[in-house]
Write a structure and sequence with these properties.
single chain, about 180 residues, alpha/beta, five-stranded parallel sheet, 5 helices, 5 strands, about 45% helix, binds NADP nicotinamide-adenine-dinucleotide phosphate
């Protein structure tokens, strides 16, 4: 794969950062995504220095905010006329006590399911402009450990457990994929 335009969410660290570096090495245009501008800028410079590829840019959004995801997708569309590969990589476990976003959604399902689903929907017209678009969603073997889905507890309204919330969010992500 080369000369593709590739957006990788959560690529300021971990698996996403390694993916961004490897895809930049192959000569692609890589858009690093993060929530921290200073960190994203530093990661871009690191990737350019290690790969010799200057086609590395960044975009910022807090994926725990659906409003910010919408703003990010608009920003992306003003800068890029098409997208070849969207890698929905960002994802995480949260703490032992249930946490809610400023918009009122449970955080695990927001970051691991709502964010990639919404971003994909918003960028679909841009992906459709590619000759061979791909969407990659990072799931986890933990999708087997969330237990039986309970749609009356979809956002842990009745009961919250870290592993269950994470596992089920990844199972639902597989279903949407
Ligand atoms: N690591 C594993 O063993 C493993 C196993 C199975 C599946 N996975 C899945 O693989 C993916 C990557 O995992 P990882 O371990 O590489 O994760 P990680 O090292 O924790 O990196 C997560 C990335 O997501 C970003 N991020 C987190 N919350 C965000 C938010 N609210 N808004 C925007 N960006 C946010 C982080 O940004 P900052 O740099 O600002 O923190 C970072 O760039 C996840 O979907 C995870 O569920 C991981």
């Amino acid at each position: 794969m080369e000369n593709k335009t590739i957006l990788i969410t959560g690529s300021t660290d971990g698996i996403g950062k390694i993916t961004a570096t490897e895809l930049a090495k192959q000569g692609n245009t890589v858009i690093v995504h993060g929530r921290n501008k200073a960190k994203a800028e530093k990661v871009c410079e690191e990737i350019k220095a290690t790969t010799g590829n200057n086609k590395v840019d960044y975009i910022i959004a807090d994926l725990l905010s659906l409003a910010d995801i919408k703003r990010m997708s608009e920003e992306f569309k003003t800068k890029y006329d098409h997208l070849d590969v969207l890698i929905n990589n960002a994802g995480a476990f949260f703490g032992k006590v249930k946490e809610t976003t400023n918009e009122g959604f449970e955080k695990t399902i927001t970051l691991n399911l709502f964010a990639p689903f919404l971003l994909t929907q918003l960028l679909l017209p841009t992906l459709e402009k590619s000759r061979s678009a791909r969407i990659i969603n990072l799931y986890s073997a933990m999708h087997k450990n969330g237990g039986k889905p309970d749609f009356n507890n979809f956002q842990s309204e009745k009961v919250y457990a870290t592993n269950k919330a994470y596992g089920l969010s990844k199972l639902y992500l597989i279903w949407t994929t």
